[in-house]
Amino acid sequence: MIVSMKPAVVYFSLTGNTEYAAKQIAIKLNADLIRLRLKKEMKKEGFRTYFIGGMSALFNKKPALSNPVLKLDKYKTVIIGAPIWAGRLAAPINTFLAGNKLEGKSVYLFACSAGGSADKGFRLIKKKLSGTEIKGAALFVNPLKNKDETAKIDAFCQAVTKEST
Ligand SMILES: Cc1cc2nc3c(=O)[nH]c(=O)nc-3n(C[C@H](O)[C@H](O)[C@H](O)COP(=O)(O)O)c2cc1C
Question: Roughly what angle, to the nearest 10 degrees, separates helices 119-128 and 92-99?
Answer without folding.
Answer: 20
